[in-house]
Every structure is written in C-alpha cells, then in structure tokens.
Automatic annotation (TrEMBL):
Protein's recorded name: TrkH family potassium uptake protein
Gene Ontology molecular function: monoatomic cation transmembrane transporter activity
Compartments it resides in: Cell membrane
Annotated TM spans: 20-41, 53-72, 84-109, 147-168, 213-235, 247-270, 320-347, 368-391, 397-418, 430-451
Listed GO CC annotations: plasma membrane
Pfam family, one: TrkH
Keyword Electron transport among UniProt keywords: no
Gene Ontology BP term (one): metal ion transport
Keywords for the protein's UniProt record, in alphabetical order: Cell membrane, Ion transport, Membrane, Transmembrane, Transmembrane helix, Transport
The keyword Transmembrane helix is annotated on this UniProt entry: yes
Amino acid sequence: MTALPSRWRDGLEQFAGAYPARFAIMVFASMNLLFAVLLMTPWATATGEPTPFVDAFFQAVSVVCVTGLTVVDMATHWSPFGNAVVMVGVQVGGIGVLTLASILGLTVARKLGLRQRLMAASDSNPSRVRKGVVKESQAIRLGEVGGLLRTVALSVAVFEAALIVLLLPRILLEGKPFLTALYEATYWSFMSFTNSGFVPTVEGLEPYATDPWFLGVMMVGVFIGSLGFPVYFVLLRHLGAPRQWSLHVKLTISVSLMLFFAGGLAYLVLEWGNADSWGTADFGQQVLHAFFLSTMARSGGFALEDLGLLHNSSLLVTDMLMFVGGGSASTAGGIKVTTLAILFLAAIAEARGRKSMEAFGRRIPSDVLRLAVSVTLWSATIVAGVTIVLLEITGAPLSFVLFDVISAFATVGLSTGFTQPGLEDPAKVILALTMFVGRIGSVTLAAALAASQTTQLFTRPEERPIVG
C-alpha cells in the first residue's frame, strides 16, 4: 500500500521536472476547482442553498485569479464561511500557489531544495517555466529565492496589517460596532493589496466616495500590491541606495508612476463636464476621482461610479491601462509595465538608429524584446478572440464587451455592467477561462503548449522582408 503513493509522488515529481509549465497550470487549475467546490456547498451561502456550479466556478476563478468580477452579490450571497473562503482564496491567488507552497515548505523544513527553489522562482520569473537553461542575469537568482520567500511572507503581513490599522478608525466613524468594523477593514485591506476589488458591504464605496483619506489608503494599497514581490525584495535590501536597484525595479516603479499620472490627467480632461460621472463636482473631487480610477484601472478593480456612464474616450483609456496592468510577479495582471517599457525602448532605439535597447545605463538583450512582443501579441489575440465569441453569444455593445474581456484577462475586475447575474452561462464560462489564462500568463501558457525549450544547432540563410 505504501508503494503506490510513493510511485505517484515519483511520477508527479518527474512530470514537474519534465514539464514545469504544465505542472504549474495543473496545480493552479486544481486550486480553482477546489475553491469552486467549496463555494458551491450550502455552507458557503447565506440562504443555505447550493450555488449553481457555473456561478460557483466563475466566482472561484475570479477569487483565486484575484480579478474581482462577480455574477452574485458578494456582500449578501455568502455566509461567514463563504466569505472566509473568498478571503483565503484571494491570499492564495495573490501570493501565488507555488510561492505559497514553497513558503509552507520553508516554514516546516527550514530549508529549500533545488526543486522547491525552481518552483518558487517560476512565480517570480515566467521565463523559468520553460525546460532548459535560464540565464541568471535577472532580478531574482536561485540562490536568493529563500530570501524572496521571506520577503513575500513579511510584506504581505506588514502591508495588510498597516492597511487595516489605517482603515479601521475611518470605518468606526460610521458608527459600526468594533468587530464589524474590524472585519470590513480586514476585507478592504485584503482586497486592495491583492488587487482583487471585491467589496464587503451592499453600499460598497459609496459612504467614502468623497473621503480623501479612505480612498487614498485604498489607492496606496493597490499601488503597492501592483509593484511585485521582486521589487520589495530589492528595496528592502537597498532602500537607501537607488544606484543598486536592479533595472527591473527602476523600470517597474518609473513606468507605474508615469501611467498613474498620465491616466489621472487623461480622466480629468476627458470627463470634464460629464454630469453622469464626476465631471461637474468641485475640482478637488474631480482630481480625487480621476486619480482613483487611474490607480484602479491598472488592476485594483474598485469603482466609485457606474463605468457604463463614462465617455467612450475614457473607456478606451481604461482599456489601455487595464491591458498594461502592473508589475511582474505582483498581485496585478495585464501584460505588465516592464513589457510596455521594453516595447517603447525598442521603438526609441530604432528611431535613434541604435543596435540595442538601453535604460538607466544598462543594455537590454534582444531576447527580452522577443519575449515582450510575444506576450503582447498573444495577449491581444486572446482578448480579440474572446471578444468576438462573446459578441456572437450576447449581442451586447462592442465597447462594453471589450471592456469586460480586457478586465477579465488582465484580472482587474472593473465592469461596465456586461458581467452580471443574468449573463448567459456559456459567457460566464468563457470569461472564467479568460481570467484563468490571464492570471497564469501567456508566457506560461505558451511554454505549456510547447514540449520544451530546444537549442538550435544551425543557422539558416538570412533574408530581410519589408516591414512598415
């Protein structure tokens, strides 16, 4: 009897070593199904009646993929047990299944083997999910994985605890009992840092819609969560020495700040005078709402207004911000800010006639550009394909369908109203699979579809096609 589990374990380890990307997807898919089963049980609902499988599956994927799209009322549908499942799910999804497993292993065994280091490293760098040699000239090396895991555990605990402390007094001012306020503060904290976007109350953000303190804390939580654990790892080691920051950290922080300010200014201009949004409020509130949406559009998922009432130009800006997303190995989704940076650096290098891309005194190799182009192309193809299918199924307006598809793929959670309880079941399943693919990333998916990374031992004759 003991030989059978041993053979299963050996077979699983052999499969993980041979096909790391497929193993990662298998583990993540299993976690989504597990949470779907938990949310489908009668104990998870406030009424005691089981949630239909499609709705439970959709919500489980949205939770574990830290997206925030809903087809049920999150504030009233779930029981205390259901809410606990949701809060645990966003932590598992935000940290990363393989990273979390490695943290638990490090806690129990006090050390990490090579296989555990490789699994954890694959969460911090998608290039590692390919079988074969991986260059170590990157933000996190294998020898630093143990330190990264400790940074992940520490940063999650510290940042979320800080958010709870900052939010709790403001919620108490609403006159709510201490335990209720503590639960809501904890819920808001988890959802902001993990960039999930779920709300614990029926009124949502309405009581705080004009409160700079509450909204500001939420923005800080979402922004920090979107930077990524490799960034925290470097900052904790070299906080007072920016010259020692890696190129990844510099690109992530600089591009994130640029997108934050560019998005806020764009919303401020485009929604000026729009009485259906914030366009007729006083200038201070317009600035607050514009920059709040700029933060949330890149992955936060919280909304103060009905996004379906925004101007189409603002919806398009939101589409672009959602598609880009946040930092690599973060709780945010999208193609990542570093991917956008690489594409622009390549365009600048081409315009200046330079052979290589450069940033912050460093040269970026051409294989990084190839990966950035691949991520962008695959992501755009998936979004376009899913949008076409959903247009055929639902007949909804293109701007609304495209918005929610990008929101699902980039695991943002904002919605124009297309994603709602009355949505057709096939559309729910397709959106759930879109969230799943968006969370695992196009690099991991492509690596899983390929047998392995091979070395080409020959070079074909060169010929240049006409481009442009």
